[in-house]
Amino acid sequence: MSTNAKLAAFAHVNHLAIPLPPDAVHEIVNHTAQDDERMWMRMGESVWSRPLLFNVTQGWWVNLTKATATGIVSRHRHPAPVTGYTLDGSWGYLEHDWVARKGTFIFEPPGETHTLVVHPEAGHMLTLFHNFGPVLYVDEQGMQTGFEDVFTRLARYKKHCAAVGLGEAFVKPIIR
Ligand SMILES: [Fe+2]
Fold first, then answer.
1. 5: CA distance to ligand 1 center in Å?
2. Residue 1 Cα, ligand 1 centroid: separation in angstroms?
3. Residue 15 belongs to a domain
4. What is d(CA 63, CA 49) in angstroms, rounded to the nearest whole number?
């Protein structure tokens, strides 16, 4: 089948697609390869976040984390689980001896406290993280010094989008 015929068949299937139930929320399709730099929010020295989905109904969010230099990103406790899929570079946690590289998937259980570091092997990283709940920032003794939940992260990103000229409305399509 030619490419055109395949595209035509796809369009035909699309036309016949069973519609979403009326109360369903809409899908999100985000082509981040076409991002411009303003869509990345600075989180610290050489660390950026590109939010992809804020779930304000269930309290979780998905984002890309990018770091461009070796070093500690942050120490925090997860009351809810987190998953990560490494797209590029190398990173890990001071509390674990494994190194995440391109293609590494991780699951961290609720109760996990860790210190995210960019591993010197590559000296940079790009990872897709799904935070299933809030993050508690802690000191070296594990005592809480701050927190982040879907609402604080969302507010931060709105402020960022306004400041860089994207406007707060840029965030709306990735809230569910
Ligand atoms: Fe974490």
1. 46
2. 47
3. no
4. 6
Using one digit for the tens of pLDDT, what is the confidence trace for 124-176?
999 999 999 999 999 989 899 999 999 999 999 999 999 999 999 999 999 99
Reported pTM: 0.90
Give a yes or no: residue 13 inside a domain. no
How far does the centroid of ligand 1 lie from the alpha carbon of residue 4, in Å?
A: 45
Q: How many domains does the chain have?
A: 1
The CATH number that applies at residue 159 is 2.60.120.10
Handedness of CA 140, 83, 164, 124 (dihedral sign): positive
Give residue 95 CA to ligand 1 midpoint distance, Å: 11
Range of the domain at 98: 41-174
Which tokens sit at 6? 């395949």
Distance 45 CA to ligand 1 centre (A): 17
Asked if residue 91 is part of any domain, the answer here is yes
* Cα–Cα dist 141/138, whole Å: 8
